[in-house]
């Protein structure tokens, strides 16, 4: 008759021992080592019969249980009442103590792992959305213009400001070269003599002429026309103005009286 065993998956030998203790409702601090060892070896033998891969950890635990079982079968020394110190030594001589300590620690971490697994399952049922930018809803706070500055920085800025104010109080006098209308009239007459009594209006100005020199030149031309020394004409609209000395004047006099020039 063929018997089929249904074995649960255990993560290690300690997990299998805890399963046996919980299944039989045993006290973990007072483990009946003979019963647990027999059940443990039965599980290992079942795994071998089913041709399951048995790791070395299960075999090491089986050897450990057999070792503890053999120590438990040895006769115990007579009970002698000692003080509390010797009572503690008797507890430490229990061959199950090391195994019990490992089982308690493993149960603690297993319970924590189960709790974290439940948290993971619970969290997996919650769907979230990407965080949005909510800075536009934040209350607007005015930035501090002196943030990050200390008293020394403010003192240096104040000293620089005082130096700038001291430089502003300096008064500078600028002298400009004054050009009289009379001198400009002489220059125009000299140009007419050099050019044969005819000159284009645009030739009176250079590229580096200032606004004052241009105004004085216009006044000099108007004054010469008023004195009937020159004649200005234009052949076509928007063409250059031609300045020409009068034909009846053979020699333009460059000497003017104060009545002739009112500038």
UniProtKB/TrEMBL annotation:
Location within or outside the cell: Cytoplasm
Alphabetical keyword list: Cell cycle, Cell division, Chromosome partition, Cytoplasm
Positions of transmembrane segments: none
Protein's job: Participates in chromosomal partition during cell division. May act via the formation of a condensin-like complex containing Smc and ScpB that pull DNA away from mid-cell into both cell halves.
Family affiliation: Belongs to the ScpA family.
Subunit description: Component of a cohesin-like complex composed of ScpA, ScpB and the Smc homodimer, in which ScpA and ScpB bind to the head domain of Smc. The presence of the three proteins is required for the association of the complex with DNA.
Protein name per UniProt: Segregation and condensation protein A
Species this protein is from: Paenibacillus marchantiophytorum
Phylogenetic classification of the source organism: Bacteria, Bacillati, Bacillota, Bacilli, Bacillales
